[in-house]
Amino acid sequence: MLQSQRIQFKPLSTTYKKPLEDLFCKNPLVMQNTLKGRVLTANELQKIVEDDFITTIDETVGFWCLTNKEDNAFIGVSGLLKCNYLGKESYEFGFILDDNFWGKGIATEIGEFWIDYAKNQLKLDEILATASPENHASRRVLEKLNLQMVRQFTSKERGARLLFSKKL
Questions:
Q1: How far apart are alpha carbons 13 and 113 in whole angstroms?
Q2: Is the confidence at residue 1, as pLDDT, over 90?
Q3: Nearest to 161 by CA among 106, 93, 89, 85
Q4: Is the distance from CB of 82 to CB of 90 less than 8 angstroms?
Q5: pTM of this structure
Q6: In DSSP terms, which residues pair with 65 in a beta bridge?
Q7: In what order do the strands lie in the sheet with 7-10?
Q8: Per-residue pLDDT band at 36 (split at 50, 70, 90)
């Protein structure tokens, strides 16, 4: 099982159906700067779950459900996704956290985990991340993790994004 100091990374299961719906479909504060910049419909969430979520511990690409080790509370989702922002296949890490866990160092801990995982397990030489230009908290986390802003771009699905990179 993947884990960091305070977090367990778990495959998708029916246990997380309601917390995922609450996070993605009912929390405009969380969703305003991620994915489509708004809460998702049930159908949109279903498509993301089918296409982008980890369902077995043997998978490496996709979103994991995150729980707090201490009390098993659902924290949010995080994972590695394949991307092609720089004209080559790369990996981007990302996270979407329930706002009850903001400001507690969780995002930094997640970033540290993925940077270490990409370098030592996947043997990558670079890792990427994106953030909405308006998401100052996520931008600060990426800068704290020593990712460098490469450029701004616009995604059809996600709108304006800042692309960050870190050489490993």
A1: 22
A2: no
A3: 85
A4: yes
A5: 0.94
A6: 10, 77
A7: 2-3, 7-10, 62-68, 74-83, 90-97, 126-131, 159-167, 148-155
A8: confident
